[in-house]
Each structure stands twice: as structure tokens, then as C-alpha cells.
Amino acid sequence: MNSADKRGLTPLDGVSILTTAAIAGAALAVWRLGPTGPMPMHFNYAGQVDRWGDRAEMGLAIGVIAMVAGAVAVVCAAMERQVRDRRGDRFTYRLGRIVGLAAPAFGAVMLTSTAFDLLPRQGGQAMFLSLMMGGMALLFLGMGAFLGRVKPNPVIGVRTYWALRSRLAWDKSNRLAGRLMTLVGLLGLAAAPVAPQPIGFHVLMAGVIASGLAAGFESWRVWRTDPDRT
Question: What PANTHER family is this protein classified in (predicted)?
Fold first, then answer.
């Protein structure tokens, strides 16, 4: 058992607790202190609001995000502690926890900012989608930079039928996914301030989907010729 386990909580545990608590606090603030007028709850394909709700519904939505973030953090932390002697596996679950906290935190920030009308008014829905595009591109960039190093696990990575039955297919498909996600993230981050919306946001999502499909195909292609497949 290493020194981090002997100490109990690790720095990442502390970040996980603080992040989850902050999201839960935002949910409470919106529920109790948010404006009493209608709030946008859903956007259509064109980035326009197609359903409105009140502060109680918005607070509930952010509260659900807090529960998801907390659940991901707990599961990843538990799995990390079960593989104390394998550094690669520890890295895998740490990355899963970071992504599982960063994505909900970004979503909570956007919803809270929308509830309290903190986003720039200039540009309207286009500005909202530009901010969403930039934030998601940054998440994809960060995830892509490390995805090629993850080991087989039930949390993060290209988890296709073939990748889970061939270590070679896992490694190659995740390396490809990491490169493609990094490229999509870089291009999306650069284009976010200038891309016309909602086209820019849709192109970013299409790039992510295409990256996932390409990585899935790669896992099948490598598995098919791997003599050590199961």
C-alpha cells in the first residue's frame, strides 16, 4: 500500500469532493435564489429555446448533474484503489475521474450562468452555442491528449466488443481515438469564436461522432487479424 492510500484522501479526492459540492451548491442557489421568470430548459437543432421551465426545474437539473459527478468520482476512486500496484491502471481511473468531473462541471456552469443571466447578451443563442462549442472542444482536446495511454477498463476509452477482446485492438483503437479527438478539439477551439452558429456546433459534434466510428472500425479491423484475440 502506498503513502497516498495510507493518508486516506488524495488531492484528487479533495478536488472531487469540492467539485461535487460546488455543483450541488449551484443547484441550491438556482433553486432558492434564481429569478422567478421562465428559464430556457431545452434547445432545438438550430440552437433556439424550444422549452421553458422555472428555477425549481433548473435547480433539479443541476442537482442531477451533481449526483452524476459524485457517482463517477466514487466509482473511479474505488476502482483506482483496487489496482494499487499497477500505475497504468491507476492513471486510467484518474483520467476517468477527471473527465467525469470536468464535463458535469462545465454543464453546471453553463446552466447556472443561463439561470442568472450571466452570459453575454450580445449574440444571443449564437453566443451561447459558441461558448458551448469552445468548452466542449477544450474537453475533447484534454481527453484526446491522454486517451491513448488508458488500459482496458469499464469506465473510459473505446470499449467496443472487439477492443475488449484484443489488447492490440484496444491499444490501437484508443491511440487513434486520442489523435482524432485531439485534432477535433484543436480545430473546434480555434473555430469557436468565429464559426457561424449553429453550424459550428453541429460540425464539432459530427467530428466527435466520426472519430468514434473510425476508432470503432479500427478496433474491429485489428481484432480480426490479431492471433491473440479472445
Answer: IMMUNITY PROTEIN SDPI
